[in-house]
């Protein structure tokens, strides 16, 4: 499995570039739920209920966990972003970000959420 680590690291480095660069500078393709916009996610939650909210929050949790793993591997140190942050708080952050910019893609929202959660521990 060591071969998967560099691939995962490059994926998350690519995501960081996607978020950090101006629109159109880099393209990072995501699959599945990662192709969803905030507006679409909020409509699905509204129309289809709390199971869809759990669906999105699970994806965001996996994204943040994977991001943490890639950073920990790169830095060779512990990364605990998200520790102690309740699911209710994660949900509130997610919904607020999506209200602010419905066109924003979920990977960008998840990256911004991770950045914010990093400051909660400090």
Describe, in plain words, how this protein is organized in 3D.
The protein is mainly α and 122 residues long. It has one domain (4-19, 29-121). It has helices at residues 4-20, 38-48, 50-75, 87-100, 106-121. Helix 1 packs across helix 5 (106-121).
What is the helix/strand order?
Answer: HHHHH
Rg (C-alpha, Å): 14 Å
Instruction: Tell me what portion of residues adopts beta-strand conformation.
Output: under 5%
Low-confidence stretches: 16-23
* Distance separating the two termini: 33 Å
Provide the domain count: 1
Please bin the fraction of helical residues: 55-70%
Count of discrete alpha- or pi-helical segments spanning 4 or more residues: 5
| Overall 3D form | globular
Overall residue-averaged pLDDT value? 81
Structural class: mainly alpha
- Total strands: the figure is 0
Note the main sheet: none
Provide a concise account of the structure shown.
This protein is an all-alpha fold and 122 residues long.
Fold topology:
Layout: H1 4-20, H2 38-48, H3 50-75, H4 87-100, H5 106-121
Which key features would you list for this structure?
122 residues, mainly alpha, 5 helices, 0% strand, globular
